[in-house]
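INFO batch 0412 | record 1 of 1 | parsing
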Amino acid sequence: MPSVDEAIADFLAQKRIAVAGVSREPGGKHGGNVVYQRFKERGYQVFAVNPNADTVEGDPCYRSLAAIPGGVDAVVVATRPEVAPAVVRECKELGITRVWMHRSFGAGSVSKEAHAFCRQHGITSLAGGCPLMYGPTSDGGHRFMKAFAGLFGQLPKEA
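INFO prediction complete | emitting tokens
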């Protein structure tokens, strides 16, 4: 498995990224929606996934990862932690090998079960933190949150 820094750089180098678990409620309060919008603003081809929505943030929303035309290279999991194992199982079925379980504060979407599944099946899994804390998607506020989250052990420790 790659180091955490290598896994983060590889994840952010992908251009087709799904955000699983975006909210139907617009306005950017849900972490998944914030990630979705930032990836879109930064030129990524990003896909919203929510089994209960046809549109999110005014864009088409897919009911599953399998429904995305042409597939994706990576997935941000922004669901409840108990849903994360089902998302990573779908990633395995589809051959998606890069997963980031979003967490800013609290449990976020991180699931020990999902992370272990990924590691057992050759999927690079970043469990914790937020992709907006790093590289081309970051901003000052997220870099500050990264420093704070690091103090409380809520950043990815292994990939």
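INFO post-check: The first strand starts at residue 16 and ends at 20.
INFO record closed
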